């Protein structure tokens, strides 16, 4: 099936249609490595994410998904093109975004509560207020009874919940998530996905969610975009996900429409994965 690439200025099909939270226009990213030719990781490519829209980015390993996210976070300066956040050109770090990586950044010497509260304290919030909000957020992620635990006393899924609370307590308008549930087992990933959707539904932040797991991408998002194999990767597919919300990320996988979407998207994604792995692919 042919997919129409959403181009700058196109109407967004999301609930939060209208305002653009993130606009990457003709963005290209290169890495200069000493003694080697410049590596052109991302060719000029465009991606728009509406305010309140949940967009998943999938693509073969090493294609440039994290690189695109890093450019949106302001951690990387593109070689060309424009990054705009809520209509303003991005200069320096993206202060409107919260970032959740595959490896959480919890401080091992601090309790779950202190790990969440510190995210506010470094922004100038007074300790009593930061602790109160930290408690509230740990409750929202189902850890009300674990506030005094240290990270090594928590399971992988529980640590991930603390990390999620640590990001959300700051109320960022944009969530940048880079394979956040990657290290978790399949069952815990689905539980985390459902939790994320429940929290997201409260105030619908714009989300860019990088994953190598197409099922996870479809279960969570409003749109799935596909990146081509690198180098000079770009976005080559853009699929609206018209599954009803609210969703349970486990149950939704049994929906016939889910399977239809999976087939359509995999058809295009597979060609890129094959390019990356060449003849190793079955
Ligand atoms: N700091 C860097 N210096 C040089 N090359 C880099 C750097 N960061 C990334 N790259 C290269 O850019 C390309 C894209 O990397 P990136 O991490 O964005 O891929 P990805 O799609 O997120 O991969 P994965 O799915 O395996 O996590 C890769 O070829 C990688 O080797």
From TrEMBL:
> Which Gene3D superfamilies did the record assign?
P-loop containing nucleotide triphosphate hydrolases
Q: Does the keyword Disulfide bond apply?
A: no
Checking SUPFAM superfamilies in the record gives: P-loop containing nucleoside triphosphate hydrolases
Top-rank taxon, per record: Bacteria
Determine if Nucleus is one of this entry's keywords. Answer: no
Pfam families (UniProt xref):
ABC_tran
Sorted alphabetically, the keyword list is: ATP-binding, Nucleotide-binding, Transport
Q: Where is the ABC transporter domain?
A: 22-254
Gene Ontology terms for molecular function: ATP binding
Show the PROSITE patterns listed in the entry: ABC_TRANSPORTER_1 (PS00211), ABC_TRANSPORTER_2 (PS50893)
Stated family: Belongs to the ABC transporter superfamily.
Q: What protein name does the entry list?
A: NitT/TauT family transport system ATP-binding protein
């Amino acid at each position: 099936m042919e997919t129409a690439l959403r181009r700058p200025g196109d109407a967004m099909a999301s609930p939060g249609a209208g305002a653009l939270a993130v606009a990457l226009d003709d963005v290209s990213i290169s890495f200069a490595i000493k003694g080697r030719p410049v590596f052109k990781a991302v060719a000029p490519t465009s991606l728009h994410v509406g305010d309140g829209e949940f967009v998943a980015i999938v693509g073969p390993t090493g294609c440039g998904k994290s690189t695109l996210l890093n450019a949106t976070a302001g951690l990387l300066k593109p070689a060309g093109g424009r990054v705009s956040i809520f209509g303003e050109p991005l200069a320096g770090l993206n202060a409107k975004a919260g970032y959740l990586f595959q490896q959480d950044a919890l401080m091992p010497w601090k309790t779950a509560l202190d790990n969440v509260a510190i995210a506010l304290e470094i922004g100038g919030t007074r300790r009593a207020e930061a602790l109160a909000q930290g408690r509230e957020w740990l409750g929202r992620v189902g850890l009300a009874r674990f506030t005094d635990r240290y990270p090594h006393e928590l399971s992988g899924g529980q640590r991930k919940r603390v990390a999620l609370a640590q990001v959300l307590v700051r109320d960022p308008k944009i969530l940048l998530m880079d394979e956040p549930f990657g290290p978790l087992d399949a069952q815990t990933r689905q539980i985390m996905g459902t939790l994320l959707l429940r929290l997201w539904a409260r105030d619908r932040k714009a989300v860019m969610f990088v994953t190598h797991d197409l099922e996870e991408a479809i279960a969570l998002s409003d749109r799935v975009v596909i990146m081509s194999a690198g180098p000079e990767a770009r976005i080559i597919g853009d699929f609206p996900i018209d599954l009803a919300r609210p969703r349970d990320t486990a149950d939704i996988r049994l929906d016939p429409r889910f399977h239809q979407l999976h087939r359509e998207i995999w058809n295009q994604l597979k060609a890129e994965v094959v390019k990356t792995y060449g003849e190793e692919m079955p």
